[in-house]
Amino acid sequence: MLEDLFCTERPKPVVRVQPDGRVFRGGQTVTLTCDIQETDVTSWSYSWNKDDSEIHVSQSQEYRISSVSESHAGNYSCTGRETGGSRYSHTSDKVTLTVSGECVYICSHHSDYMSKNVCK
């Protein structure tokens, strides 16, 4: 078809999360990867969104969150833009990052006066 010569289907990225799904706060690192397949574009710039607001743009397909806290919880998605070009990908489906676990300070009343941090 004639339109195939001028228009190519925009790819749709897939966001992968490592570790997957639920993480516990307190020093844990989460890596989001924007995976764009089946395209002739050799170089992408990646735009990361959290709750529909752009938070990061990079040449790397990975977005790393270190020392995860409750503020990082939300819905993440990515979009690719051709580096030095005008083509865009679709926006990926959203991936929900849930941060759980509450660190509480427990003071022991035993004779040894031990105290410790407990995360549950």
Description of the structure:
This protein is mainly beta. The protein has one domain (14-102): Sandwich (Immunoglobulin-like). The protein has strands at 14-18, 22-24, 30-35, 44-50, 53-58, 62-65, 74-82, 88-91, 95-100, 103-107, 115-119. The protein is elongated and about 45 Å long.
Q: Largest sheet, described in full?
A: 6 strands, mixed
Strand content: over 45%
Order of helices and strands: EEEEEEEEEEE
- CATH arch. level architecture: Sandwich
Count of structural domains: 1
CATH superfamily: Immunoglobulins
The overall strand count is: 11
Mean pLDDT across the residues is 80
Shape: elongated
Distance between the termini: 60 Å
Protein name: Ig-like domain-containing protein
Pfam family, one: Ig_2
GO biological process, one term: cell surface receptor signaling pathway
GO cellular component, one term: external side of plasma membrane
Pick out its properties.
120 residues, mainly beta, Immunoglobulin-like, six-stranded mixed β-sheet, 11 strands, elongated, disordered C terminus
Secondary-structure blueprint:
Layout: E1 14-18, E2 22-24, E3 30-35, E4 44-50, E5 53-58, E6 62-65, E7 74-82, E8 88-91, E9 95-100, E10 103-107, E11 115-119
Parallel strand pairs: 2-9
Antiparallel strand pairs: 1-3, 3-6, 4-5, 4-7, 7-8, 7-9, 10-11
